[in-house]
Amino acid sequence: MDAIKRFGRAAKQFYFRYQHGTWITVYLIFYLLGFTIVEHAGHRHYHVIHSMIDDMIPFCEYFIIPYYLWFAFVAVGILWFVFFCKSRREYYQLSSVLAIGMTAFLVVSCVFPNMQDLRPAVMEHQNVFTRMVEALYAADTPTNILPSIHVFNSLAIFFAFNSSEQMQKHKVVRASIGVLALLIILSTMFLKQHSVVDVSLGILMAVTVQKFCEFIFQGSRETYKNRYGERYLRG
After folding, report:
1. Which of 6, 25, 69, 235 has the most crowded Cβ, counting Cβ within 10 A?
2. DSSP category for residue 195
C-alpha cells in the first residue's frame, strides 16, 4: 500500500509540474484524427501542384535520412519545451504556432484538395536508400501537400529554439538545429514529396504565424511572469 501511495503522490506531482503539456497532446490527437479523415475523404478532383522549378530539381534518395529525422526533430523539440524549457511563455508560443499552422493545413486540404505528380515512376538504381524511399511512397499518399507541414513544423521548431532565452548561450546547438531544419526542407523537394510551391507556402506560413504569435506573446510577457511567478522562471 505504501508503494502505491508513493506512486500516486509521484504521479500527482508529475502531472501538476507538467500539466501545461496536456493541451498540445490533446491537440495532436485532434490533428491526427483530422488528418486521417482528410486523407480518406476520397475527393473526386485534386488540384495538381507543380512548378517549372520542380523539373529542374533532381531526385536524390540520400535525402531520405533528414526526411525521416523530421519525426524525431519535431517530437524532441516539443518534449524539450514541455519538460526542460524554463519559460512557460515560450512553450505556449511554440504550441500555438504549431496548432495554428497545422489547423490551417487541415482547412486548406478540405477546401482545396491538392496533390503532386512528381515521384519517379522507376528508381534508376537500387540501394538501401531507394528502398526506404519506396517504403515512404507506399505509406504516404501524394495528396494534401499544400502547404508543406514538414517545412512548417521544422521552421516552427527552429524559430522556437533560436529565440529561446535559455538557448542563447548554445550557438552550436542552435546552428545544428538550423542546419537540420534546412536539410529537412530540401529533402521534401529532392525526394519529390513536395513541390517548390507548397514548400514556399510552408515557409511563408511559418514566418507569418511565428511573427503573429511573437506579437501576441511578447505583449503578454509581464502577464505571464505575474501569473506564474517562479514557475515562469524555473519551469
Report:
1. 235
2. -
Q: How many CB atoms lie within 10 A of CB 97?
A: 26
12 CB neighbour count, 10 Å cutoff: 10
Percentage helix, strand, coil for the chain under 3-state DSSP, each rounded to 5: 75, 0, 25
In angstroms, the CA 117 to CA 139 distance is 16
Alpha-carbon separation of residue 4 from 10, 13, 14, 78, 93 (angstroms): 10, 14, 15, 30, 37
Taking phi over 0 as left and psi of -120 to 50 as alpha, with beta for the rest, 46 belongs to: beta
- Written as nine digits, the cell of 30 is 485532434
Evaluate if residue 63 carries a pLDDT over 80.
yes
- 158/151 Cα distance (integer angstroms): 11
pLDDT, tens digit, for every residue of 84-119? 998 989 999 999 999 999 999 999 999 999 999 999
* Helix count and strand count (H, E) for the chain: 11, 2
Q: Which of 109, 187, 98 is nearest to 143 (CA)?
A: 109
Query: Is the overall model pTM greater than 0.85, yes or no?
Result: yes
The enclosing H or E element of 115 equals strand 114-115
